[in-house]
Amino acid sequence: xxxxxxIALLIGLVWIRVYSEARRELAAAQRHRADGRIFLxxxxxxxxxxWSYPMSSSQEAAGSALESIALQLDEEGDAxxxxxxxxxxxxxxxxxxxxxxxxxxxxxxxxxxxxxxxxKEQAPGIDAGATEEQLVADHRRLLSDELSPDPWxxxxxxxxxxxWIAALLILARRGFDSTGRLRWSEARAPxxxxxxxxxxxxxxxxxx
Length: 208
Known about the structure:
Layout: H1 2-34, H2 38-50, H3 57-75, H4 79-95, H5 105-120, H6 132-144, H7 151-174, H8 184-207
Helix pairs in contact: 1-2, 2-3, 2-4, 3-4, 4-5, 5-6, 7-8
């Protein structure tokens, strides 16, 4: 019971920290944007995205603001600023992903815009003869080629770690007598659970 209360308290404290930091960064970004300090606003919007949690209002607000800034700078001919805003949007959304996140249309669009703007820059030596369409396709491929945890193996990793730790706690509490001697009849089940949990954790860690 005490452990459950402590875990709930810890989760609550983490949620409060994430929520407060996301709101603080979002407020700072809005102030900088109102003052015309666009690049500082972009930086704080990116941080707000990184502090966001699934379905949070700050994530939606920061994402919409970065998209709006990127489009505005692109229309004004500021390719460098637009590229920075699109990269902040893509990177912030990538940082806010969790294990079962699917494809994010907003991030896909940001990557497409990054590829388009990158293709307009002068191509380095090896790509000097490539067309703009080829450069866009190459940049899109590179932006899409990322390492992500496998959901199944990631779940096995988390489940294995939970079982492993829980079994060890049970072993420490029930597997020994008052003199510290191992009671095999009581320790056998938690030892087996710890072994299964550790193997699951190791496999998840290897393949996730």
